[in-house]
TrEMBL record:
Complex and partners: Monomer.
Span of domain Carbohydrate kinase PfkB: 29-336
Pathway the protein takes part in: Purine metabolism; AMP biosynthesis via salvage pathway; AMP from adenosine: step 1/1
GO cellular component: cytosol; nucleus
Compartments where found: Nucleus
Lineage start: Eukaryota, Metazoa, Ecdysozoa, Arthropoda, Hexapoda
Name used for this protein in its record: Adenosine kinase
Organism superkingdom: Eukaryota
Length: 345
């Protein structure tokens, strides 16, 4: 049974500000189509300009928040998922919280007055064919472990049975990751994590390796898995071998073996469990139906977790992940509409 507060996600909350713009707008801010960068000073005025002049759409974003929203959509019961991350005390955090709560999320943000709420401009050009992302992490970088020790938040963590963090959060608060992971281990709860990006495997290898012994379920795509193999000298580029080697790395909770799941876009999803690799075919859509692949990985995990926390089989969990990712890439941003019609059979 799906009770409130069953799963806690912790990550970097960003308000996605999405709008169709022309090539001149990109040139004005030295941006390229189909690129993703972190904002610097010259990009700061861009966000208000989008809102004031381009009929921008607001979407509650950030990798883990996307995953939790998709899970909530599939669960069709509010507040099963809790989300924590740091935002500023400003108009953007009000919009972000409103959008996240509309999705059914129980939002427990940490607020800082040191930075503004993190934002990501999603600039759409050429009739939807191209996207340029410009992210300003800002307040998301200010999350502190103190937030999970606030009594009401501590109770939420004590009551939850499943935890999910992104690799991106390794750059913000590895101490929080270790604290939650330790709690999960001591109470035999499920701790899941995502590799999130190739650069994290290389430049944040130490905190990633510190978290890995606690990880019960590890998600990643093919480029992230290859980067992990290279950074950790696994000696192979074969994805099945990489998955098997990661599944056999040190694990502190010996009551359950590690599950590794590697997605490959339109190619089969690899499930590594108990020394065996199972392939699940992904759905290959015609090119004209693919609108935006940015949220595919987040949606996959959201679909998977929505079924996993209901004790469905791993086969059903992965099929739901594939279903969710296929739905999301046919829309702009990590968005969805209507009632989910996922059928496991």
């Amino acid at each position: 049974m799906c009770v409130e507060g069953l799963v806690v996600g912790i990550g970097n909350p960003l308000l996605d500000i999405s709008a169709a713009v022309d090539e001149d707008f990109l040139k004005k801010y030295n941006l390229k189509a189909n690129d993703a960068i972190l904002a610097n000073e010259e990009h700061k005025p861009l966000y208000d300009e989008l809102i004031e002049q381009y009929n921008a759409e607001f979407i509650a974003g950030g990798s883990v928040q996307n995953t939790m929203r998709v899970a909530q959509w599939l669960l069709e019961k509010p507040k099963v998922a809790i989300y924590m991350g740091c935002v500023g005390k400003d108009k953007y955090s009000k919009i972000l919280e409103e959008k996240a709560r509309e999705s059914g999320l129980n939002v427990k943000y940490q607020y800082t007055d040191q930075e503004c709420t993190g934002t990501c401009a999603v600039l759409i050009t050429d009739n939807g064919k191209h996207r340029s992302l410009c992210a300003n992490l800002a307040a998301a970088n200010c999350f502190s472990p103190a937030h999970i020790e606030v009594p009401e938040n501590r109770k939420l963590i004590d009551d939850a049975q499943y935890f999910y963090v992104s690799g991106f959060f390794l750059t913000v608060s590895p101490e929080t990751i270790q604290s939650v992971a330790q709690h999960a281990f001591e109470n035999n709860k499920v701790f899941a994590m995502n590799l999130s990006a190739p650069f994290l495997c290389e430049f944040f290898k130490k905190p990633m390796r510190a978290a890995l012994p606690y990880v019960d379920i590890l998600f990643g795509n093919e480029t992230e898995a290859e980067a992990f193999s290279k950074a950790n000298d696994l000696g192979t580029t074969d994805l099945k071998e990489i998955g098997l080697k990661i599944s056999n790395m040190e694990k502190i909770n010996t009551k359950r073996k590690r599950i590794v799941i590697i997605t490959q876009g339109a190619h089969p999803v690899l499930l590594v469990k108990d020394g065996a690799v199972t392939e699940f075919p992904a759905v290959k859509l015609p090119e004209e139906k693919v609108i935006d692949t940015n949220g595919a990985g987040d949606a996959f995990v959201g679909g998977f977790l929505a079924q996993y926390i209901q004790d469905h089989s791993l086969e059903v969990c992965i099929k739901c992940g594939i279903w969710a990712a296929t739905k999301i890439i046919q829309r702009s941003g990590c968005t969805y509409e209507g009632k989910p019609d996922f059928a496991p059979l």
